[in-house]
Amino acid sequence: MDGAGRLETAQAAQDSHRLLIEAITDYAIYMLDPNGLIVSWNPGAQRFKGYTAREIVGQHFSRFYTDEDRAAGMPASALRIAREEGRFESEGWRVRKDGTRFWAQVVIDPIRSLTSGALIGYAKVTRDLTERRAAEQALRQSEEQFRLLVQGVTDYAIYMLDPEGRVSSWNAGAERIKGYRPDEIIGQHFSRFYTPEDQAAALPQLGLATATREGRWEREGQRVRKDGTRFWAHVIIDAIHDERGRLLGFAKITRDVTERREAQQALEEARERLLQSQKMDAIGQFTGGVAHDFNNLLMAILGSLELVKKRLPADIRITPLVDNAIEGAQRGAVLTQRMLAFARKQELKLEAVDLATLVGDIRGFLQRSIGPSIRIDVDFPADLPPVRTDANQLETALLNLAVNARDAMPDGGVITISARREPFVPAGSIAASAGDFVRLVVADTGEGMDDTQLARATEPFFTTKGVGKGTGLGLSMVHGLAGQSGGHLALASRPGEGTAISLWLPVADGRAEQDGEGGKPPAGRGRRGLRILAVDDDSLVLVNTAALLDDLGHQVISAASGREALDALRHHPDLDLVITDYAMPQINGLQLRDAIHATRPELPVLVATGYAEFPADADTSLRRIAKPFTQDELAAAVAESCPALKR
User: Fold this and answer.
1) Could you check whether 15-128 and 351-506 share the same CATH topology?
2) Confidence of residue 22 (pLDDT cuts 50, 70, 90)
């Protein structure tokens, strides 16, 4: 190509470059001479800076700089750096024609002669980054606010993990909950917070793998603090990916939920205790009802046998059989008393009892009852206060516990009876039960019970002994005694480690209290010829009571209900005594007594009952006789109820 052709080609290329530059509006592209005067101006420059080419060409480019930058010599410094180093590049504030500022990215390149290398000017490119800078500042501000927020959170441990699970950030909540300072934990693997069991099961790796695959992993479990203590944690791990889907790491949030778990557990335990209490109450109601009906049957049997024995001539073939039947019925009466004890409906004489003295008095009897292969140890402090309970029932309870302990130690062992003044704290509770108690403990070194046996131990008729070796009412009776005394019963046992029965009894306030007649009335027979109204809705009991009274020489009028009794009272104004059952439909024994005393206040009323079912506000002077009763007990009660008519 000749010279003219090359010139034409060069001119065409120059025109193309000019057209390209003129077409660009997103960048300000213009030329400076060696002194910094503007020699060209593209539409992008006009859009950014507001000047037309006619207004700005020939002006010094420093007018775009802020007053502060010009005072600091920034324009001259920029040209010098471009000239000496081949390029100047920076970001900073620039000024538009209208005086407003914008954030600019500036590049200045020197232009030199291709032949001589002499500087002939500068090419300057400016880009408006105001919006980007505002977005970056907003992002940095948001990130700082988020950082401050995360650092300010103390109820949650919030921290970051790298893709391998190493801790890369640590907030104040993490330090509070887990105990590590940032310099102690950053760079360490997060698996150190897991228990040895979870580490062995690769639970940390499972959490990261699940979060990577599904985006999130959430679970509750035990975690370990710096000091080695454990806490219950709710954990969330979220995977963090970039826009290409590449894993950058994990965000981890841990909350200490130990108190919530403990509260839930306490609630569940309370609910379980409530259900157990409701079950035992239901069993108690059923047992009490059965015992009541059984008492009525025993009344009929014992009374009839007594009369049969009195009226039959002595016969070696018959008399022993009658005696055997009476003994069997009496053993049935003992069984009903145990059932009523469990149902908390037996007659109790509550009084101040010195435990050390009581145990000391019966220790020899207990030892003889359990045999020489078992030693009884006793441990009572000198300052132990008296307790409020029924002394006779407590003796029976201790005998039952000693016999149970003996049966659990077929090869011998030790029974320890001890007591301490101690508050009662229900299982799963952090507060003591109201009241002042003495804890009486009977512990053995026997076979013990498993959890299933322990849970049912106080149920009536449940026994770990073989068939025919126990009624299963011993512990039930102790349970009832504890409740009716205002105390509590607790069992602790493990297979092979023995059993400890704890009986919390309320400390006595010095006043002897009585929930019934307690001791038996003095023996003796009533005056013959009394006119007595016998009232009972059970025909067997009514016939039996009437027969016993008739045999004692009294004139008996019978009534099968409270209403019949009131009718009989109107037709027999000369009655000397009324003997009535308590548990009757429509009108019970107490209501009948009140109705009688409304018109005949001087007429004695004797209430017969199989268990302590009277309301709490019942008259303490109430005359009562416990079922089943013998003829002698009935005679004594009649005499006691009618003292003016005694012989």
Assistant:
1) no
2) low
Helix/strand/coil for 190:
helix
pLDDT number for residue 428: 41
Helix (H) or strand (E) holding 534: strand 531-535
Residue 348 binned pLDDT confidence (cut-offs 50, 70, 90)? low
Instruction: Name residue 249's amino acid.
Output: G
For domain 351-506, the CATH architecture is 2-Layer Sandwich (3.30)
- CATH number of 15-128: 1.20.1250.20, 3.30.530.20, 3.40.1160.10, 3.30.450.20? 3.30.450.20
Distance between CA atoms of residues 441 and 444, nearest Å = 10
Fold for 271-326+522-647, please state it.
Answer: Rossmann fold (3.40.50)
Hey, what CATH topology would domain 135-256 get?
Beta-Lactamase (3.30.450)
Under a CB-based contact definition with an 8 Å cutoff, are residues 119 and 112 in contact?
A: yes
The helix (H) or strand (E) run that includes residue 132 is helix 130-152
Widest CA span in the chain: 167
Average pLDDT over residues 131-157: 67
Task: Tell me the backbone φ, ψ of residue 610, rounded to 5 degrees.
Answer: -85, -15
- pLDDT at res. 33: 95
**How far is residue 357's CA from residue 300's CA, in Å, rounded to a whole number?**
40
Each residue's pLDDT tens digit, 251-298: 999 999 998 888 888 778 777 766 666 655 665 555 555 666 666 777
